[in-house]
């Protein structure tokens, strides 16, 4: 019983220090925004509420149901938290869950924690939230919309987390994208079903027994921000997938680093921080560039998001 | 799932336990960083790092193999790197019978390196939690400039982790007690079981939400005003500085030697 | 005089529309120890939450001669020590020390006095030496004691306790009763434990459906079978 419910917790060593650092920068940016947004949302209740609900997600991950001999379905929880509490609150909740799992139980590494927070927290929360609201706006306010929306949102959120993990592994030379992507996406397409059913069942229980509890998510901050973040994620993935067709540069992240000129240290280092890695399956060594651009765009979008937040805050007080 | 209800902290009276938690937290991070920076195939360096972590376990009076025995947590994730030996170009050193896949030498080296890094890093993390009460760890995080609000949240989460996990397990048990297995009778469909699990999650959420309201009330009634406050707990002593400098220097020395040779 | 509780015509409705208090009046004199009894859902906990401004209903609540408003809130919370029904709600910090130190810390005391108050109040409840433990791992009775210590550390003038003896074994309960007797503060204690009421409180207030239905000497009330019967209570 020493397995993570959803095997997305990357241990230390599987990502290069550079990739890990990028993850931390992005994650910290999101956490900083989330702290401010939830402070506006919840006031003095922010800290006890986020803490107790993080404990709830952790505990809810222990509620399982048998699928087949030896395996069981579990919840990851990012989408559920986002649907109920809003995406920024969910970001904080999942950050706490992932931090505790890593610090206390060594489930997920320390150096790579930034990406674990992004994969299982930020990406699942924002995907889940946007997809849920979108399905609800399509289907209207009715129980079917709640169940269908919850299911699709939760399923997709796990899928996005898994795809992101595959990209990070590939960018670190730990696994070729051509393998990691279908493997992660395939396995989690199944795991996501459990996530979907549990999430929609939990939502319909709330709908029946305490409908007010679902109103928090409706009024939570981040409705516009969420669409922005999800668009950024989608664009990053698309750009990353198609860029090497334009530029056939072999060195992936190192190339980008050089272009940015911020890693002269890497150039001076007596060895390379990044493995010189090519992916024979595709026969196109430039695929790593995709990953580099992916990560680069993520960084750029992260910064853009931060700037956007700061400027909108100046114009309108509060969200 | 990872709920070990036993606190991973192991009370002992040792030098490592007495160290300032900040020193332990920083050294653990530096160790993980050093291991991640060690080039592929630098076996001597990895051996030195292993020796370091085993020594620390021994100095903590946990027995030198303490972290070793608990370090296989990261192993399942090994699957993620399993393709590396086969897809990295280079001279073949082994061919899988029947399938005809070849393991290349650089691929093998890279694969083993990834596993070693993960294995050593997780051992350092295990030692940190085994020798530092979690509350001290939280305090050191706060002191190391992690946002106060975040650390306070972690504190609440840690406190209610056990309470809510207990509630979840009680629900699991109550469900099991009412789920007889009658031989020959069909088992309820998976979809139905998943919905039951979902309802349990929903009611657990309601309980947690109500609990968070009561907790807030309890805080407010003792003067909480939204500001996070905490007491200063530890002072860096001479010994703390010595260990901090000594271990960081050895980490740097191992890395530099590896790179020079 | 200080240390008084004075509630006049207090009404409270929860946000979901549940009416919990429908005009409560009560006055407690300095140094008095009063029991608050009534069936489940009578409004006891709701009333107690008004006494240090966690809930603010319609009506008048004066504590220590001052009305509760935003200005006096801080002082009122320092003056009224509220011990919650479930010690798992009361003990919210990751360690016992942090929890007992919480109130004094927010009162702005310096480190030395905080340390001292933590020791004194744990001493008062007979729980010295558990400072470093995680509250979750304490037994039910220990949790209750520490919960009381967290409030004593603020040296309140008035103690308000919500069902202090619920879920305790006989010996732990006995210890707690003795402790309550020793404490000098003005006290309002809600409870279903009629033995505790008979033994420790000279005065009892009966509340039902959000109203005070009886208020007087404990002995007299406990002898009134009709009263007890109609409010779901039993003499010990
Ligand atoms: N948070 C809440 N939201 C809505 N209604 C509530 C809430 N808390 C209590 N109530 C309702 O208010 C009424 C009074 O509840 P209260 O908790 O004050 O009763 P009590 O006398 O303390 O009962 P018990 O002896 O069971 O503790 C009850 O009808 C209860 O259902
Ligand atoms: Mg009550």
Overview of the molecule:
The complex is a heterotrimer of chains A (319), B (261) and C (236). A two-stranded antiparallel sheet of chain A has the order 1-2. Chain A is mostly helical. In chain A, 71% of the residues lie in helices and 2% in strands. In chain A, a hairpin with a 2-residue loop joins strand 1 (65-68) and strand 2. The termini of chain A are far apart. Chain B has 261 residues and is mostly helical. Chain B has 2 domains: 7-132 and 234-260, no CATH class; 134-139 and 146-179 and 198-230, no CATH class. Chain B has helices spanning 15-18, 21-37, 43-59, 66-69, 84-87, 105-131, 134-143, 148-177, 190-220, 238-260, and strands at 92-95, 102-104. Chain B has a two-stranded antiparallel sheet. In chain B, strand 1 (92-95) and strand 2 form a beta hairpin. The two termini of chain B are 44 Å apart. The mean pLDDT of chain B is 85. Chain C has 236 residues and is of the alpha/beta class. Chain C has 2 domains: 1-64 and 158-172 and 185-236, P-loop containing nucleotide triphosphate hydrolases (Rossmann fold, 3-Layer(aba) Sandwich); 87-156, no CATH class. Helix content of chain C is 37%, strand content 25%. Chain C contains 10 helices and 10 strands. In chain C, the strands form 2 sheets. Chain C has a 6-stranded mixed β-sheet, with helices on both faces. Classes of the chains: A mainly alpha (319), B mainly alpha (261), C alpha/beta (236). Chains in contact: A-B, B-C. Chains B and C meet through helix 7, helix 8 and helix 9 of B and helix 2, helix 3 and helix 4 of C. Adenosine-5'-triphosphate binds at residues 14, 16, 18, 20, 38, 40-46 of chain C.
């Amino acid at each position: 019983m020493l397995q993570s419910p959803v095997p997305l917790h990357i241990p230390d060593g599987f990502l290069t220090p550079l990739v890990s650092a990028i993850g931390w920068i992005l994650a910290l940016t999101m956490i900083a925004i989330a702290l401010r947004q939830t402070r506006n949302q919840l006031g003095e209740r922010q800290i006890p509420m986020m803490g107790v609900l993080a404990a709830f997600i952790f505990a809810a991950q222990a509620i399982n149901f048998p699928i087949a001999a030896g395996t069981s379905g579990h919840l990851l929880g990012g989408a559920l938290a986002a649907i109920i509490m809003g995406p920024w609150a969910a970001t904080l909740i999942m950050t706490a869950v992932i931090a505790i799992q890593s610090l206390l139980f060594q489930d997920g590494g320390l150096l790579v924690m930034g990406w674990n927070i992004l994969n299982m927290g930020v990406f699942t929360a924002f995907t889940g939230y946007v997809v849920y609201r979108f399905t609800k706006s399509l289907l209207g306010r009715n129980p079917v919309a709640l169940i269908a929306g919850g299911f699709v949102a939760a399923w997709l959120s796990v899928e996005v987390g898994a795809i992101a993990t595959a990209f990070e592994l590939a960018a670190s030379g730990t696994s070729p994208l051509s393998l990691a992507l279908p493997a992660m996406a395939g396995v989690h397409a199944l795991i996501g079903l459990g996530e979907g059913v549990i999430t929609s069942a939990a939502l319909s229980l709330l709908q029946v027994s305490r409908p007010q509890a679902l109103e928090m998510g409706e009024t939570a901050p981040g409705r516009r921000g969420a669409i922005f973040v999800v668009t950024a994620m989608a664009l990053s993935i698309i750009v990353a997938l198609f860029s090497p067709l334009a530029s056939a540069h072999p060195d992936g992240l190192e190339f980008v680093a050089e272009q940015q000129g911020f890693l002269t240290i890497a150039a001076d280092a007596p060895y390379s921080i990044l493995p010189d890695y090519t992916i024979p399956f595709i026969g196109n060594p430039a695929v790593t560039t995709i990953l580099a651009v992916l990560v680069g765009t993520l960084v750029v979008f992260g910064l853009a998001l931060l700037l956007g937040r700061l400027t909108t805050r100046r114009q309108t007080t509060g969200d | 799932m990872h709920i070990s209800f036993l606190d991973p902290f192991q009370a002992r009276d040792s030098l490592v336990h007495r160290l300032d938690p900040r020193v332990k937290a920083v050294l653990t991070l530096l160790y993980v960083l050093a291991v991640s920076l060690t080039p592929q195939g630098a076996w001597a360096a990895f051996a030195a790092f292993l020796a370091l972590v085993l020594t620390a376990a021994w100095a903590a009076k946990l027995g030198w193999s303490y972290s070793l025995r608990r370090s296989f947590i990261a192993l399942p994730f090994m699957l993620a790197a399993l393709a590396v030996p086969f897809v990295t170009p280079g001279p073949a050193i082994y061919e899988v019978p029947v399938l005809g896949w070849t393991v290349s030498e650089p691929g093998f080296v890279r694969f083993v390196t990834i596993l070693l890094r993960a294995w050593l890093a997780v051992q350092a993390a295990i030692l940190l939690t085994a020798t530092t009460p979690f509350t001290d760890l939280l305090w050191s995080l706060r002191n190391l400039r992690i946002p106060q609000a975040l650390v306070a949240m972690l504190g609440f989460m840690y406190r209610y982790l056990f309470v809510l996990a207990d509630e979840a397990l009680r629900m699991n048990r109550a469900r099991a007690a009412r789920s007889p297995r009658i031989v020959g009778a069909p088992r309820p469909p998976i979809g139905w079981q998943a919905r039951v699990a979902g309802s349990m999650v929903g009611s657990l959420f309601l309980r947690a939400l109500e609990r968070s309201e009561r907790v807030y009330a309890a805080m407010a009634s003792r003067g909480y005003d939204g500001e996070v406050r905490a007491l200063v707990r530890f002072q860096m002593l001479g010994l703390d500085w010595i260990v901090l400098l000594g271990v960081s220097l050895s980490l740097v020395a191992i890395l530099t030697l590896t790179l020079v040779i | 005089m200080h240390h008084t509780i004075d509630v006049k015509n207090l009404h409270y409705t929860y946000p979901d529309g549940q009416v919990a208090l429908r005009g409560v009046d009560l006055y407690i004199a300095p140094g008095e120890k009063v029991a608050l009894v009534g069936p489940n859902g009578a409004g006891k906990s709701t009333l107690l939450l008004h006494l240090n401004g966690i809930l603010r209903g319609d009506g008048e609540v004066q504590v220590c001669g001052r009305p509760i408003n935003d200005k006096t809130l801080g002082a009122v919370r320092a003056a009224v020590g509220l011990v919650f029904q479930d010690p798992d709600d009361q003990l919210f910090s990751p360690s016992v020390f942090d929890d007992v130190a919480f109130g004094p810390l927010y009162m702005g005391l310096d480190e030395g006095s905080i340390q001292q108050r933590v020791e004194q109040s744990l001493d008062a409840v007979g729980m010295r030496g558990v400072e470093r433990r995680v509250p979750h791992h304490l037994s039910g009775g220990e949790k209750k004691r520490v919960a009381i210590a967290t409030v004593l550390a603020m040296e309140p003038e008035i103690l308000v306790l919500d069902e202090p003896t619920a879920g305790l074994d006989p010996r732990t309960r006995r210890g707690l009763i003795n402790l309550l007797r020793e404490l000098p503060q003005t006290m309002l204690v809600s409870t279903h434990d009629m033995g505790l009421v008979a033994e420790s409180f000279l005065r009892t207030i009966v509340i039902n459906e959000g109203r005070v239905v009886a208020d007087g000497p404990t002995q007299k009330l406990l002898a009134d079978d009709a009263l007890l019967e109609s409010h779901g209570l039993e003499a010990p």
